[in-house]
Amino acid sequence: MENTQKVDLTKIKPYGDTLNDGMVQMSFTLPVPYGDEASEAARQLAAKMGFDEPAVVYSKDLGIGYTYFIMYGKCTHTVDYTTVEVPKVDIEFMDRDQVEEYIRENIKRPVVIVGACTGTDAHTVGIDAIMNMKGFDGNYGLERYKGIEAINMGSQVPNEELIARAIDLKADAILVSQVVTQKDVHIANLTQLVEMIEAEGLRDKIVLVCGGPRISHDLAQELGYDAGFGSGSFANHVATFVVKQIVERNLI
Amino acid sequence: MRLIDIISQNNYNTVSIIGLAKNSGKTVTLNYLIEEAENLGLNIGITSTGRDGESVDLVTQTQKPTIMAAEGMYAATAKKALMLSEAKTEILETTGIPTPMGEVVIVKVRQGGNIQIAGPVSTADMKHVAERLKHHGAQVVFIDGAIDRKAVSSPVVTDACIVAAGAVLSRDMKKVLEKTAHSVECFKLAQVGSDARKIIQKHRKTCIIQNTGSVIVPDIATSITGGKKISELIDENAEYVYIKGAVTTSLLKDIGDNKFLRGIKIIIEDGTKLFTDINVWNELRRKGLTVETVNSVNVIAVTLNPVSPAGYFFDSEIFKSEMEKYIPGVKIVDVVSGGDFD
Predict the structure, then answer these.
(1) Whether B119 and B249 share a structural domain
(2) Does B58 contact A219 at a Cβ distance shorter than 8 Å?
(3) Domain that holds residue B200
(4) Residues B310, B272 within the same domain
(5) Is the CB of residue B146 less than 8 Å from the CB of residue B50?
(6) Catalytically annotated residue among A11, A60, A74, A134
(7) Are residues B305 and B284 part of one domain?
(8) Is A134 annotated in the active site?
(9) Is the pTM of this model over 0.90?
(10) A–B CB contacts, 8 A cutoff, strictly below
């Protein structure tokens, strides 16, 4: 194994069979009928995407003149991993017991958290994973936390209703989930919520958190939220952030 | 008169730059004003309600203009954004205001260069930060908006507002003109007379003011869902209906169905509180809806960006002259290809 190459973190590229071979597997559908011409079109398209040696390894007739492809190709680009920076919620996360104790000791009253999947989005998988009792991947949701009153309003909730409910319940925090949206409509939807909360004069009295696979902590800043949680976040992450904000911002 | 002269001669201390969408030209406008202020010898401070100065957009992955900070300028920005900046700065003060990118600090630029700006996310904190920038010596503070967020342009927060309109809004120039004119119309709604204003400022709650001078306060937690209840209390004696907080399309529709609509004036806090669909708004106006504000937003200019990152652009001269027709009485500046000649 004396030929083993070392990984150069300043120039990383995909790994297939050997280091830095750049191998990528991808799939897409073209609106053309199944056949040799379709495969050639797919190959040319992959070449235009910048892949070396593009090849169709599988294609399937989807009917109505559409064809599905699985392609291989070699990526010619590299990324300098050492310069990649992703801002994250920068606190030490507590587990459920610690969050419960933190509430008992520092807040001394129930923390009310209202959550919803807003606008046109009907995908509750995100908000359910954080809020519902059974939680996700072995991490219980906020409903199970002692000291937290978690209200999950479900999907396709208009911003107006979410705010009205939060006002009604004197909520400490609002969680908004956006999972699948078309043409970046989640952005306008998220800013509208923030703007309405500002208009109601509530912004500095509430902890505002957004989450979803296309949400980052970085984007939260742009949107005007206190935090953004991407994929791989659990209830205890969100809970830690919310209870700490309540104490730090003196919202007790 | 040049835009910077308008700002300086009217002693506007805080100026917000808001857009109707992403990539509508807010940062280009900010850069233009930074340069103009420098030529005029004005000491300025800058901050942002979102994030500015990074070269690639977070959502659309398109190129964004960077912000060039000159020596002597002040800025309020989050620690992590500051660390990504090239400009050398002196930290004058830490504010204790948290943002997703760290605590907001007030800095003075000691050596010019690109700077990244990420300011407070809430307007209450923004107001405080603008005060601090002024305290340290900024004569004018420019607050760059984010995406389509407009709350910072409330007259409670900033003295004057610049609206950035860009081709990005639609491929159809007419739609861009209509949308821009609609938002400027909402911002510039007339201010209510002083008698009604006094009553409103005494109550500070959603209420109905009758022509006898008596005031009815509906029992609602928020006007957002209170449209029907408010409407039920409107009778032939109602003169003003004051709505505190967000004024939504559904609320306006509820009141628009009231048979005494033509006899009343709706008063809102200011134009940033209005969340209405342009079609519903125009239809209700035809039915006789009149809306005035406690404070009107001072729109001093509309800036144009005739280029869309989606790859199309408008003829800048036509875009400018059409915008002048749609929004008479407001200065229109093409910050991308034209500049400010008159």
Answers:
(1) no
(2) yes
(3) 194-293
(4) no
(5) yes
(6) A134
(7) no
(8) yes
(9) no
(10) 114
